[in-house]
Write a structure and sequence with these properties.
307 residues, alpha/beta, 5-stranded mixed beta sheet, 13 helices, 9 strands, 50% helix, elongated
Length: 307
Amino acid sequence: MATNKGLGRGLGSLLGILDDDNDIKPIKKESVKKESAQVKKEVIVPEGETVVEVEISQIDNNPKQPRKMFDPTLLNELAQSIKIYGVIQPILLTKKGDRYLIVAGERRFRASIIAGKKTIPAIIKDFDDREIKEIALLENIQRQDLNPIETARAMKELMDAYGWTQETLSDRLGKSRPSIANNLRLLSLCPAVIDLVEKGKLSAGHARSLVVVTNPEVQLKLAEKVMNQKLTVRDMESAVKDIDNSAKKTVKTKPTLSMEMQEFKNNLERTFSTKIDIKGNDKKGKIIINYYNQDDLDRIYELIERM
């Protein structure tokens, strides 16, 4: 089955309204009908689609939903809005046996439950498991409230899952290729710095300046300096340049690894997603796996245990 079966322009129009942001422009307005009565509200519907009211008790959450965290404050705010105005944007469902599975609109679904709603407006379409995953990832990337790391991970998952290039992703999302490349570069940062970005303590602009710093310890020190001294992105860029120039002056005495050992080191760093130090030569030496916090250590421990 082709990757874009049922997607393409149809998905684009669906995702245009299946977003939880408030600045989505209506495509068309259509009254939603129950079997027995007219619902006194209007919902935003893509051209050519049919919206029906589905009982919330017949709907299941998507266990593979990429977004795991839902801000309770924002959910309650949306629930209050739904109490007053109803669900303006329908959710997207697919039939699974005699029940329905959420493809897009998890946040509206959760808020509707909080608001005490018994039914929710929905568009029902046939999707296979691969398409469900693709749509869920695309919807999450297009959300405005994802943090930069969540966005980058969702982009990478799409590229890895379907063999997409950055150009393909650019076409699917309507985002520029440089924008996608800048997001993906954040994943090359050390885990401790990534954690700061995820928690909103370090901006994406500051983090991107750190990508060129190869030493994780220096990355973290600079990140902490930004937070403590409230440096601007330009200040950060200057600090990175100073460190780079200093490193160039001192690098001449550092012993070099053989080509085979360097390749081995690179493979280890990709496997453990952290800095690896190898001291010695092809015959004798030691390998050092660096970690930067408790979570990082637990992750490495679990990875070694699985091996």
